[in-house]
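User: C-alpha cells for this one?
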Amino acid sequence: MSKQDVSAIAQPGETAADGHRGLAPVPDAWEYWDGTPLPRTDLLRWGYTTGACVAGALVAFWLAMKDKSQGTPSSVSLLFGDGKTRSLPLGPDIPSLPGFAVIRKNGGDDPDCTHGILIAARLRPARDNEAPDARDVVCPAGEATVYLHALCGIGLVTLDGLDCQKGHWAINPGVVRMIADNLARAGLAAGRWIADIAIPEGEALASRTLNRTLGVQGGLSLLGTTGLVRPFSHEAYVASVRLGLRCAAKLSSTAVLCTGTRTMAAARQWVQGPGRGAVPDNLPAECFVSIADFLGDSLRAACQCGIKRVIVCCMPGKLLKYAAGYDNTHAHKVAQAMELLLKTIASLFPERQNLERELASLPSMRAMLAIFSQDEQTRLLEHLAQASLKNFAALARASGTPPALAILLTDFDGTPLRLFPDARFAALMHN
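Assistant:
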C-alpha cells in the first residue's frame, strides 16, 4: 500500500484527505453540557450511552453516601467496557427527584432521541423484610446484590425474544455488567440494595422508537455494550467503508463484511478454523471490514474495488432484512420484515397447524426461531440466506460483475453457525 493510500484513511484525530470528517479520539473526560445544540467540529465526537449514565449516577450517589461531608461530586470516574476509565459530568438537579444523582446523556455526533435527556438514580439499602419488585433486574456487585428498579421512563419487557427477560425492566445485560463492575470498583461490597432509576422524559420519547413493536412498553430501553457511542454519520461511515475495502483489495481478493463487534469476532474465529474453503490462510486484519447497516454501499464498493470473494457475516435478524431486499438495515429506519418472514414460514411449513396464530404476537426473528425445531430452523435460515444472496448479487451488479458471495451466519451471541455460499463461491471451495 502506498503512502498516499494510507494518508487517505481518516485515523482517530485526523480528517480524511477527501474532506470527510474524521473521528476524534475518545475523550478521557467529557465536559459539562447544558443540552443546547453542540457546535459543529472538524472531527466527529464520541458520546456515552444511557447505560453509562445510569452506572455513573449510581456510583456518584454511592460515593456521596459513603462520605457525606463531600456531597455529590461534579463528575464521576467510570470504568467502560473497553477497560479504560473516563470521567462523566454530573447534570443539574431535577426538582421532582430531590437527592438523586443526575447525568445528562450525551450522544456526541451520533445523536438519537435520547441525546440530552436527564437520567437520575439513587441507591438505598433494602429494609430487612423488603421484597424486591418482581420486575426488578438483579445486579450482583461483588458480594452485594443490587435490584435495579424503574421509577419512571424505563420500559417493561412484555414479549420473549429480547436480550432482557420478559416481565422485567428493559435493561440490557451489558448495562447490568457495567453497573455491577463500577459499584464494586467504588467499594460496594455487601448487603441488599435498591437502585431507583428515573428518566422523566422516557415514556414520551419511547413513542419515537421501535420499542412498542419489539415488546417494550411504557418507556425506553437502557442500552450499551461498552458504554461508548461511536459517532457514525452516513457519509463519513460509507467513506470509511470504501477506504477500508480499497485497502483490503490491495492485500487480498477476499473481504469479510461484518455488521458489528460480535460478528467481527465471529468472522475472525471462523476464518482461523477448519473448513473455511475459499478463504486464504492468514487473511490480513484489513480484510475484515465493519459495515454496520450499510450493506448496499459496501457491496457496491467491494465490486468497484475488484474484490473477487465477499463474505457477509451477520445474525438472523439482519439476514431477514437482507432477504427482504433492504440495502440499509438501521433499526430506526427499517423494522424487522415480519410480513416476509410470516409468508416464508407459511410456505415452508404448511403442515404446521395454527402456525400463523402462534406467530402473530411475536415481535422479532429471535422470538420466532425459538418455536421451531432445529431442523425447521435450518430450512428457514437456508431459504432466507439464498434469497439474501440473490439480493446481494443485484446490489453489487449495479457497479459491475458481482463477486462470489457467501453469508456467514452467527447466533445471537456471535458464535459462527454456518456458511451459505452462492454457486460461484461454492465452486471455489471445492477446487
